[in-house]
Every structure is written in C-alpha cells, then in structure tokens.
Design a protein that fits this description.
There is one protein chain. By secondary structure, this protein is α/β, with parallel strands linked by helices. 27% of the residues lie in helices and 28% in strands. It is built from eight helices and twelve strands. Strand 4 and strand 5 form a beta hairpin. The structure holds adenosine-5'-triphosphate. The site of adenosine-5'-triphosphate has 11 residues, from helix 1.
C-alpha cells in the first residue's frame, strides 16, 4: 500500500447511485495532486474519504499507512489537515483568527482554555504570517472576507503539522487579486520540500499553483485519468472531463483553458 493514500476499487453508493464509482487512486509521499472534475463529479466525496470522515460502501482505503475500518479515526484525523467550506459552519464567528487556528492544535473548533502553550501560539502566528494574515490575528473570524477566511483555514489545517493536506476549492469565490495571492502562497507551500503531501480540489486550471505534480480527473464518479500533470493535463483529457471542446495553454508553470467558439 502507498505511504500517503491508497484507494482500491472504492465506491460510495447513495440512493442506488454511485457517487464515487470503483475509484483506484494513490498518493505517494511528496506528491501534490490537483483534483479536477465538473460539478457533482464526486470530488468532495473523495476528499471526505481521504480525510477519513466517510467510509466507502465498498473497496479498500488506506490513509497514512492505516486501513480505514481498522484504525482509530480520531488519531488518524490529527495527522490530516483539511480546509474546505464545510469548516465555516463549525467555527464560531466570534472567535478571533488566532483562536480559530489555535483550536486545531487540540482537535477542537471552539476555544475552551484560558491559556495556550506558548509554542502553539508561536506556531499559529507563524502560519498566519505565512498565509498573509499577520495583521488580522485579533479580528473575529466571522468578520473576515472570503479570501481572508480561506487563508485562515489553510493556516488552521497546517496547525497540527499534518502529513497530508487536503484543500477543497481554496480559491473559490476569490477575486482575481485574491486568487493570485493564494496561488502564490500555495505555490510556495507546494514547492517546500518539508510541506505535507497535498490534494487540492479545484474547478479551474488557472488555480493550479506551481509545484503541483499530479492530476486526477473525475467525471460522474469515475476516474478519467490520474498521473503526472506534465502528461495527463491535456486539452483532450480536459475536454472529455468537462464534456465540451476546450483548449489548454501552459504559460511557464501556470495554465489556462478556454472553450472553443460555437459553430
Ligand atoms: N448523502 C448524499 N445522498 C445522495 N447524494 C449525494 C449525497 N451527498 C452527495 N450527493 C451527490 O453526490 C454527487 C457528488 O457530490 P460531490 O459533492 O462529491 O461532488 P463535487 O464534485 O465535489 O461537486 P461540486 O464541484 O459541485 O462541489 C452530487 O451529485 C451530489 O448531489
């Protein structure tokens, strides 16, 4: 089994429909994966499995060397960083940005201690600084803009020094400046040899940061392609994935895609 993540013939069936359909996919240490696919393809469902929050209907899953179904998931979850919109509702709006990141160290969402370990606080501040949030650590989480919240959640996901970092649409809803700022920060993370293995769900190839190494494309719960970005991120694969003819351009270490004109 692969070090970081291994899915073998994994399916998730709800109401007679396979949301994830016999998916086999693995992540080895140091790899940074992009997950692309149309709305409803099963991307978030895959991340829920990878983060051990969802147990599949069939197939085998191993995360960080532990087989789902045979491991204490609470212990396993502390080794996985997860940042996605599903966290927004769980984090109290009145907590400060610093508290929001600090609580992750205790596997909690709500602050309950009067004082935190100084080293935890130092780590939280350093991670917030890395995500461009140094000036906002005392602000209430609920008052942040979309981009600021996303950057806070990534700092939070990194708080436990995870071995696997899962990002669900980190750039969704950001304006052009916010997206480019985030892509730069994710690029720095992806190119940091000490950063965890990563998997990031995105809807847009423009959001793929330099340093991402592999791509998984899914459509209707099935794997269309999985492998190195250099060989698998092609106009042909992308067109199949999204179900319409697309052109794809590479500009150095960034990408852009467009639909072909009608007619
Ligand atoms: N509990 C459930 N019962 C039935 N269907 C579900 C359930 N949860 C999710 N689905 C469906 O499963 C499919 C896959 O959902 P998922 O959120 O994984 O897709 P996604 O690729 O992340 O989509 P998006 O890009 O729109 O966020 C969708 O059609 C969704 O409606």
């Amino acid at each position: 089994m692969s070090d970081v993540l291994e899915l073998v013939d994994v399916s998730v069936v709800r109401e007679g429909r396979a949301l994830v359909d016999q998916v086999s996919w693995s992540i080895s240490e140091g790899e940074r994966w992009v997950i692309l696919g149309p709305n409803g393809a099963g991307k978030t469902t895959l991340l829920q499995i990878a983060s051990s929050y969802l147990f599949p209907t069939s197939g085998k899953v191993s995360v960080l060397g532990e087989k789902l179904g045979e491991v204490d998931v609470f212990e396993l979850r502390s080794r996985i960083g997860l940042a996605g919109a599903s966290m927004f509702d769980k984090l109290p709006a009145e907590q400060t940005v610093l508290q929001t990141v600090l609580t992750a160290a205790y596997g909690m969402t709500v602050s309950w201690q009067e004082t935190y370990d100084q080293s935890d606080e130092g780590r939280a501040l350093a991670l917030l600084d890395r995500m461009g949030m140094a000036g906002l650590t005392a602000r209430k989480f609920g008052t942040l803009s979309e981009g600021e919240r996303k950057r806070t959640l990534i700092a939070r996901a990194l708080m436990t020094d995870p071995e696997l970092l899962l990002l669900d649409e980190p750039a969704a809803g950001l304006d052009l400046g916010g997206r480019e700022d985030l892509v730069r920060r994710l690029g720095a993370l992806a190119q940091d040899e000490f950063a965890p293995s990563m998997a990031m769900v995105t809807h847009h190839v423009e959001e793929i940061a330099p340093g991402f190494t592999h791509v998984l494309m899914i459509r209707q719960g099935k794997v269309l392609t999985a492998g190195p970005i250099d060989t698998e991120l092609t106009a042909r694969n992308l067109s199949k994935c999204f179900g319409l003819p697309l052109t794809l351009e590479r500009h150095g270490d960034r990408w852009s895609a467009q639909g072909l004109p009608l007619g």
